[in-house]
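Two folds, back to back.
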Amino acid sequence: MKAAALFRATFGVAPRAAASAPGRVNLIGEHTDYNGGPVLPVALGVRTTVVAGAADSGLLEIVSTRDGRFERIDYRENRAGGWGWGGYVAGVMRELVTAGAAPAGGARIAVASDVPIGAGLSSSAALTVATAKALATLARVPLRARQIAGIAFRAEHDHVGVRCGIMDQTIAALATPGHALLIECASAETRQIPFRGRLLLVDTGVRHDLATGALNRRRSECEAAVARLKLELPELMWLAAWPAAWLARLKRALPEPLRSRAVHVVGETARTRFGAQLLARGRLKQFGQLLYESHESCRRLYECSAPELDLVVAAAKRAGALGARLSGAGWGGTALVLVDRKREARITAAIRRAFHRAYGREPPITVVRASAGMRREPVR
């Protein structure tokens, strides 16, 4: 295990606890999570592994295989967002202290990951969920998967300052192989949905920083839309709860760009719930059409796409893919493509050709398999 080897090389002793958590790709339900709507992610095979051991009181000593740089953090200081990736770890530790589930004193942590950073695959949630599980294991406190997901969410949202929803941490903690997870983000209710499709994940190579970027602006726009819509529907708490049948009323009530943002969220909410029904019935062709509709709404109404993402979706559609769309908030990162096996090779070649013509390089394309969520790992 790379993380354990790094721990021994850095600290000269063996770790005492280990855990891992996966990246994820969201099949459909983009920007609905923080608006109280449904999402439908699957866990990926790529994972982040965290190993942990004891350290001096009040300190986190951390190291990662990504850069090999050792850092010492006093997690009691209220500035977790100012430590780079260490801020996520510090946020987890602070939440565990609040929950009475932190190891006594401090902790030493080593991290190894094959989840790409900034690609829209939720590398941050994989880190926070794996860290929470490893540290709780070190403390010998048995936390349920939902408790781990909540700790990881608050670490990222409250301490680092990413105004995310609960999707990423929930799928990282609760995923099961061969299934997507329908998450109703307002209630945190979940339902496992069998997923029999074949997905290609296309990495555009364009990276984004969600903590300080457009995601926070979009969330502010959605909150402003809710504030205005409360004049029409005083009991409204979440933008996703606006009735789809009242779209004309919504459009009259909101100026741009709030109107477009809200129309996307309401439409995406309906698409996601319908998409879960289609997947449960094995109706992949109809589900694929929803993916195209979702991408167009993200591109035109939510304005969260990128030229590279649009090119991949268009090339996939021309080559006969069942469906395609951006995934992982947008503004770069990855696109997912739903294919049948007979056309997979042709679609893959078409995407590579189109991307190479436009950008002079071929994008990495991998096959997605719905994988398992967090787990304890053997310390070795």
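---
second:
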Amino acid sequence: MKVMVVDDDPTIVDAIKTLLKTEGHEPAGMYSGEECLNNLKGEVDLILLDIKMPGMNGIETLRNIKRIKPDTYVVMLTAFATVDTAVEAMKEGAFDYIRKPFAMEDMKEVLMDVIEDIKLKKNHKVVGLMEGGDLDCFEVFKNVFRNNVKGMCVTTEKPETIDERYALKNVSYVWLTEENYIGEPRGKEQERMGPKEIEKLKTLIERFITENENTAILISSMEALIRKNLLGTIKEFIYYLDEKVRTKNTSVILSVSPESRDVPGLTEIENRIADLYIRHISESISNPLRRNIILTLDANRECSFTRIAKEVRIRDSPKLSFHLRKLKSSGIVEQNDEKKYFLTKTGEEAAVILKDMKKGDVKVLKNIVWMTGKREKTD
């Protein structure tokens, strides 16, 4: 890897550079945040970044790195590690952090974690973005209605027709019409809007998942939205949906008809969804400590912070907090009223993936389902 070491202490920079050379990497030393940013034009895989530096500190430098080169791995170096600094670094996109003074084995372990994550992103192929098979999107949608799930269906078809054909229960409809109509809801469970009204659709989705604890959303007419909106608007909408499935108890099914394969921008949207799958996988299982946490919770169902620390054999509380928060923000773990950690449904799927990886059978998390098979039938 091409590695940039950023620290105002030349002794530390030289020591890390020597280790990196020994491990076969290509290091470059920088002595301030400003110098780091001025040299980001070249290729760099990993930046080892001190948090406490004169002038531009590490957190501010991290923010700028992620703005300029968002895919660059950044590992923070700190002699003042606390839960607050760890969480702040995580929120700004840090891959991990190392407490100073550090053992060389700690540095080697982090380097291996980064290499493993790079390989995962390069080599992992998304498996089955949910081919329709013998089921159309409405039949798949209907199958999720267990445990008091309430559904929202966004479609170009008449809601009355869908209701009659599939006998869907607990479903509210958003009817996409070419009239671009904005008005009051037509009845208690039905609203009409135009395909261009993405912001209104986001408002309706937000209201729906806020008012209901357990939800599923079907957008059966993605081609209508793609045709009527800028590609950047649809990409942003996909990210919005991704955030909701990770932070709320909901699932999303997106569908286009087979005859819509030539819609401009469709391939790029599919690739964007694939990128989200890979990101979720890499965030949750690429780091050894996070893998151990997931498998520990899978084996024990519920664990306190102290129990997890004992099971994964870590004495660095800020580091454990860092990775638990990372898993929590990715929708992998949650806490109950007793503050014990447990796996969410997505976390349980991640545990299955980890077990399957040992058998060479890698699957993907399906928090957003993309269907390109059969769709609703027309009368």
